[in-house]
Amino acid sequence: NAGVTQTPKFQVLKTGQSMTLQCAQDMNHEYMSWYRQDPGMGLRLIHYSVGAGITDQGEVPNGYNVSRSTTEDFPLRLLSAAPSQTSVYFCASSYLNEQYFGPGTRLTVT
Amino acid sequence: KQEVTQIPAALSVPEGENLVLNCSFTDSAIYNLQWFRQDPGKGLTSLLLIQSSQREQTSGRLNASLDKSSGRSTLYIAASQPGDSATYLCAVFYQAGTALIFGKGTTLSVSS
User: Which of B49, B94, B104 has its CB closest to that of A45?
Assistant: First the structure.
């Protein structure tokens, strides 16, 4: 199993550009989630999903959209990137209340 | 609203010391609690998962305890080594075990 994979590893965007961060898991986990990590802030929950077609907001959802059309994939969309969205983004899936994290995407918005 | 606090924010110890990292949470109705390790610029490595019905878990030199009634968890590291230097994150499950709420972490430095 590849576990949780994320692409790209690094990305630089200009303010106002849009992009999608990809996340996939091959463990057939129902629950998936997105976090952002900023210096000194720990990880904060952006959005999560409890299954295909079901998503909900976390602690910091503004500026981000998600959808879950399949069990395997949970993309995170930035419709109009802002410098405040410069961060490291982690995707995770969970099973039996244990979380498994992807390697992260480092995003810089200039 | 669930909040997770970790104390201290940073800790420096000489090699060989036993140490305790603290984690507290405001809502005792948690599902599970998970401790992670993060090296600089890297992803998260799961260290220990404590189910809500358990009081502790052990893995090698690590022991994590959970006291739901007081809203506390501790991570005990025995005989610390320079390779233990990292940031340690505590997290509790949010809403029926779907996703995690994290503390800000404790950055540990072990000198040789």
Answer: B94
> Are residues A87 and A38 in contact, defined by beta-carbon separation less than 8 angstroms?
yes
Task: Give the distance from CA B10 to its chain's centroid.
Answer: 13
Residues A79, B20: Cα–Cα separation, whole Å: 43
What's the first-to-final CA gap in chain A, in angstroms?
36
Q: Report in angstroms the alpha-carbon separations of B57 from A108, B64, B84, B89.
A: 38, 5, 18, 16
Interface test with A, best of B102, B104, B106, B107 (most A CBs within 10 A): B102
Q: What share of chain B is helix, strand, coil (3-state, %, to 5)?
A: 5, 60, 40
- And the tokens for B6? 């970790």
Q: What is the pLDDT of residues A5-62, one digit of tens each?
A: 999 999 999 999 999 999 999 999 999 999 999 987 789 999 999 999 999 999 899 9
Q: Do B31 and A97 touch (CB under 8 A)?
A: yes
